[in-house]
Structures are given as structure tokens and as C-alpha cells.
Amino acid sequence: MKWAPWRTRPGDVTVFFEKLSIRQKTALLALAKRMMIADAKIRIEEDALFTLLRAEVGAGLEPPTQDVFGKIDVSLFDDRYSQLVLLMTLAVMAFVDNHFHASESSVLNEVIARLDFDEETIAQAMAMAERQGALIREVEDFFQAKV
Known about the structure:
disordered N terminus, globular, mainly alpha
């Protein structure tokens, strides 16, 4: 799979992550990795998205193993902005491979429950994440066909 060069331009995605603290970024990576491995299969789309996410939040950040496999802790996401970034990141990770597995749903539902979002916000976020996942797949297919 070739990587679309437009994805790594400064400001494309980074703007959402710039406002997060280093601790929030590390926790975000841990939870995204947990989503990626939730169904015991790492699909190429998930791996590519995680690689992009890691580059965007800080390539040197490494989520501790206990944060990936331990109890889900979203307490670092203590304002609505960081909570929305977390929700959207995890939801896109769930949809990017066009296979929203029950284990991914379980992780995402636990995060959502701890963040106390209203139903409308959840529905909007999930719809946008599903469209974003489809768009990522479409762009990847386009690049594979043209390059």
C-alpha cells in the first residue's frame, strides 16, 4: 500500500492534536493501538492509520504496554476538546478497515460511557468517522490504481 503524500502535510491533521498535552497524546496512542488490536487482527488500513497518527502526535511517543492492555483510563482527557479528539480518533480507527468488530465496539463503548457524551454527539461522531473511514479507503484505492 502506498502512502498518500497529502496526508502528511503540516496542518492537515496535526491541528487537532496540537492542543493535546504529551500525556494526552501518549494515552491517545495507547487507546488507538488498543482499538487496532481489539479484534486480534491488524489490518493494513488500521496499521497505516496508526502510523499516520503516531507521526502526527509525535513519532517519538511510545504508549506503555500497561496503557494498551490495562484498564481504560480517560481521565487525562479532562476537557471537551480533548474528549472529542479521542472519540473521533477511536471511531475512525474502528471504521477505517470497513470491519467494525464487536471487540472494537466494546472498547469504543467503554470510552464513550466514561466521557458522558449525549446521543446526538455520539451519532454525529460515528457518522463522520464512518464517512472518514470510507474516504481513507477510497483514497488508498485511488493511489494504488494510479501509482
